[in-house]
Amino acid sequence: MRREAERLLDALTAERADLLLRQLPVDALKTATNERLRFTGLDTIGVHTVADVLATPTGRLTQVQGIGATTARRLRAAAETLRQEAVGTHTTGIGDTPTASAMALVRLLAQFDQINTLDEIQRARRRRILGWAEKVPATGGLWDVLVGEGPEWRAYLDDIAWADVHPEVLAPARPVTVSGESWADYLTRPAHYQALLSTLLDLEVEGGDDLAADILERIRSLRLDTTHLTDLHLRGYQSFGARFTLVQEKVILGDDMGLGKTVQALAAAAHLHATGRQHTLVVCPASVLTNWEREARRFTDLPVYRAHGSERVEAVRAWESDGGICLLTYDGARTTELRAPDFVIVDEAHFIKNPATGRTRAVRALIDGASHVLLLSGTPLENRVSEFATLVSFVAPELISTGMSEMAAADFRKRIAPAYLRR
């Protein structure tokens, strides 16, 4: 199904390119070359668009008075350049035009929707097993089996044991039928179908489009240490978010709900712990304290201390002594004396949007004393540019300038890109 989806996506790109070229008049060819061209008289042989030039043989073009073989070849070369540029603007967006390829792709995704029963962790297991299987030689003969003891070997054994219990996940998908209304369903749920396409093709959107090239290179070249992560396979964009945090050191992560802001924060904490910065402090509302404790214990092997209620002081002292992840409410951050953490994670960061409150001043002091800071907020900056200017001033004051809160949202977002990531 993946290969067929890739084929249909390529065909859809070609259809869009052809449609664009049919809309471009022949004089658009001037933008594709510095060489001298001639257009007069092309209309007499039915050539009106760039697509017409591509469809007309060189010999036919030379029948126009004033167009010789050289000019004809230049016309076709320029048209081919525009065609390649059109195809090069490849996108995975299905669009709303019911072309043959678009409708076939939607039908395929509707079929995939019926058999897409694995969660992300299970899909990662399946990908790893298939990857190992591809490395097995197809020829016969004796094999040498090397047994290891490291985490990769243990993960391999765990994956094989899982596949042994669930052999059906490695079997070819059974053909399924879909109704003829799949295109209508797509038009009512385009985001669902786009997500299916991303899953089928293993596409991920890293984000960071407005970042400078050198920052992107440092993020992409950083090898994330996952020694202390357990039962967690990061998706590509999640790994990027964790590495963005580590490289830029003090940032805001504004991903939409459901994209895994918590696991990105935990991945960054696990990396820092493995590299010697072992005191992570999570400041969050009391209502999500239990969720943080559950996620931290599930996805990391780090000590987790719930510093709340009657055991708050004892938990903080144990964290200060042994390191790990300390979970503290906003009120706790205001009333508890504690050592400067290495990494501060602030969940629901809009709680500290008012610089005048005691809560904000307490968290600001923790932010100033840490080497790494991650503010989490699912509220789009477009909703309140002025409030985001305050949050940015906590993590990257050098990006703030007078009157910045009055900027248009798009300009503001580009300006703060080194400290703000949202997908």
TrEMBL record:
Pfam family, one: SNF2-rel_dom
InterPro entries: DNA_repair_Rad51/TF_NusA_a-hlx, Helicase_ATP-bd, P-loop_NTPase, SNF2-like_sf, SNF2_N, SNF2_RAD54_helicase_repair
Source organism, top-level taxon: Bacteria
PROSITE patterns attached to this UniProt entry: HELICASE_ATP_BIND_1 (PS51192)
Gene3D superfamilies tied to this protein: 5' to 3' exonuclease, C-terminal subdomain (1.10.150.20), Tandem AAA-ATPase domain (3.40.50.10810)
Keywords linked to the UniProt accession: ATP-binding, Helicase, Hydrolase, Nucleotide-binding
GO molecular function, one term: ATP binding
Ranges where the Helicase ATP-binding domain occurs: 242-398
Keyword Thylakoid: no
Protein name: ATP-dependent helicase
Species, as recorded: Corynebacterium pollutisoli
Species lineage: Bacteria, Bacillati, Actinomycetota, Actinomycetes, Mycobacteriales
